[in-house]
Amino acid sequence: MSSSPSRDSLPPRQRLIVALDVPDAAAARALVGRLGDSVEFYKIGLELAVSGEYFELMAWLLERRKQVFADLKFYDVPATVAAAVRRIRDRGAAFLTIHGDPGIMEAAAAEKGEVLRILAVTVLTSLDDDDLKAMGIGMDLSTLVLTRARRAVEAGCDGVIASGREAAALRKVLGPAPLIVTPGIRPANDLTRDDQKRVVTAGDAIRFGADYLVVGRPIRTAPDPRRIAEAIQADIAAALQ
């Protein structure tokens, strides 16, 4: 497992990751410009991956000393995932997501290199227990998240993607080292769910044990994105005190 900062040493302002879920690089650059120095870490995912501008945008962010989370959720046979990780590991991204199949996780961890950290998706925050039942999964959501997280760490992943609602249990089971990266974050005064079913506030997620928080729509669609980003940064800082 790659070495990573302890929870105490991780700079508070690096814990907020803004999701650039926009249709093209121009829109992404415009949002980054509006946010300025209020945000140091950005996630770029599938929408931009199919725009043809993914690596151009990644390089642009890195040139501006921003950290990049490549949220590509690789899911394929292990050999294909290993080959894809080899291709992306030297691009400068800090994080890469994969799905939590044991063979996929082991293949990705074996090829990640010295800098890239592999994060395994446990259960998407758009799902709840009823969705799992509809998918034919008999295990309850919390147990499934913990089971997949244990397997991810055993397979050599650096951490997991999980809801803040599971962060406390995950931290207790996994210990202090593995990263917990939490999407479905909402500002303290707005728990609008959109298509997320397991949402928490920024402060609660940090107190529960999350290391990094991924925020998209609450910042991206705000009239003043920077003001919302700064408010979330303040919530993070307060939760760490």
Compose a concise summary of this entry.
By secondary structure, this protein is an alpha/beta fold.
Describe the 3D structure.
By secondary structure, the chain is of the alpha/beta class. It has a single domain, classed as Aldolase class I (TIM Barrel), CATH 3.20.20.70. The chain is 42% helix and 17% strand. The chain contains eleven helices and ten strands. The protein has helices at 25-35, 46-49, 54-63, 78-88, 102-111, 129-134, 141-154, 167-174, 202-208, 217-220, 225-240; strands spanning 16-19, 41-44, 67-74, 95-99, 117-121, 159-161, 179-182, 185-186, 200-201, 212-215. The strands form two sheets. Strands 1-2-3-4-5-6-7-10 form an eight-stranded parallel beta barrel, surrounded by six helices. Strands 8-9 form a two-stranded parallel sheet. Helix 4 (78-88) runs parallel beside helix 5 (102-111) and helix 9 (202-208) runs parallel beside helix 11. It is globular, with a radius of gyration of 17 Å. The two termini are 28 Å apart. The relative contact order is 0.15. The mean pLDDT is 89.
